[in-house]
Amino acid sequence: MWEKYANIKFEHTLNNPNILISFKNKIHSNENNNRKCGIPLVNSELAHAFFPSAYQNVTEIHLKSDIDWNEEISAISNKKLSLFLVLAHAIGIEHFAVSNALMFPYYKKPKEIFNAVNFTLSLDDLLAVENLYGKNKLEVLNIFCPNISILEQLRNLLLRLTLIEDKKDDDDDEI
Fold first, then answer.
1. Domain segments of the chain: what residues?
2. Is the CATH number 1.25.40.10 carried by domain 1-139?
3. Other C-beta atoms within 10 Å of 158: how many?
């Protein structure tokens, strides 16, 4: 999902990963350094992640091992939301106090089926990931306007501005 909006790509690799994902018990150790993790997976916590470090080029995501992570794609799921949240932390995105943002720090039970393919980030989520990784170079802007005449007016205005700029450039050449 984050790839859709920013210049970042996730690939599975066994050699020198940037993010290590592992299944853990309540009290557990980190994969990277085998030290005790300071964040136990207790109560309703499904997963947690560490922010990227300036000192290491690897970070970790710990998923609770006694959870069935294999579920129907169409299920309403706080598990899927948790995965996107911890992945966001692993790539450096923090929580912020915008209630409609994915990165809002308080849990909101999904009201509809969560679909990662059609999920749209809030503007704040989008700006956060773009600030860290840049815009997706393959970005396509789709415009929906219920009133086609307004869309036509906008298109004509943009064409006129382009023509004015072209004329201005021609005038500059003569000087």
1. 1-139, 143-175
2. no
3. 10
Closest CA to 86 of 39, 145, 122: 39
CA–CA dist 33, 105 (Å, integer)? 28
Burial class (CB in 10 A: 0-12, 13-18, 19+), 96: middle
Q: Which two tokens stand for residue 78?
A: 């706080």
Q: pLDDT digit string (tens) for 103-157?
A: 877 766 666 665 656 667 788 888 888 888 888 774 443 444 444 455 555 555 5
Distance CA 74, CA 57 (A): 34
Rounded Cα gap, residues 53 and 57, in angstroms = 7
What is the length of the chain? 175
Percentage of the chain exceeding pLDDT 90: 0
DSSP secondary structure letters along 94-108: PP-S-TTSTT-SS--
| pTM given for the model | 0.66
